[in-house]
Write the structure tokens for this entry.
Amino acid sequence: MSETDTAPTRIINSVAPIRICDNGGWTDTWFAEYGKIFNIAVYPYVEVQIEVFPRDSARDRVVLHAENFGQKYAVFPRHEKHEWIHHPLLEASIDYMDVPDDLAVEISIYSEAPAGCSTGTSAAVTVALIGALDLLTPTRLSPVEIAYTAHAIETKMLGQQSGIQDQLCSAYGGICFIEMFKYPYAAVSPIFVGNSTWWELERRLALIFLGKSHSSSDVHKMVINNLENAGPENPKLEVLRQAAVASRNAIYAGDFKALGAAMAANTEGQRNLHPNLVSGDAQQVIDIARSYGALGWKVNGAGGDGGSMSILCGPRMSEKRAMLRAIEETNPLYQNIPVYLSRMGLRVWQREPDGQS
């Protein structure tokens, strides 16, 4: 229910994809200095909707509805409240974009991907939110500007560790090959393939949520400390960069065996950074996937407890379905999340309340 009885003057919508199969992750960071990353943008999207009202028609200038958490509350600039209390990433993004003084807005945010799924959902939320808020201003940010803004909010305003790939993939969509030439600046090369390769890749991929949210841990801090001390030429980082290159080459060639091998090599590269980056749950899913003829597997994101895995299955549809049943029967917390490849990245549009553009 809206905080005002007045009808909105316009409604802004945005959607942004999440990402899976992020081969080369860990090389898109400040301590890697340069990197190569391959990833795939997928549905389920993050959705943002902004209802816009005249300022004098609403009690609060900004109301945030975080639907996944069942929370609806007023958001104030940090200089007024001194802290972001409930969802700092969302509140910092709203503060940064600075809603015009003559407007009041109600912002609803929703994602079908489980929280802490290690699929770049927080980056997709920020990209979608910035893209929608951008329509309140007279100028327009480009996709790369939105990605860099989202990254800066997370790292500079909130002081969190974050690579650049999640924001860029969400902003651009599709299958991406990202070359970070000097942190945080990068070039994004969309990988265009024919429909038969695109459809076959979509059919073969599976996303498995491991049943609990991923969060940064002491393991990640230890890995970061080791990588920082070893420098950007660390052979462990180079293994991950080469997994991204191999993934790009495989998808251009339509070679799913090679893509699967690159995914598995990247996961072993993560394990080599620290054995706990490939959790016991992840290893159990890998073992099941291998027994059903899967070609490859990737622990999504940085790795560690919780989160999710991307699996690239073999050619038989029945074998993929049997694998998914076996995974979910092994542990009731494991969950197959249907995914569809997203050709587009961030999309933003607005409508009048009566449906007329």
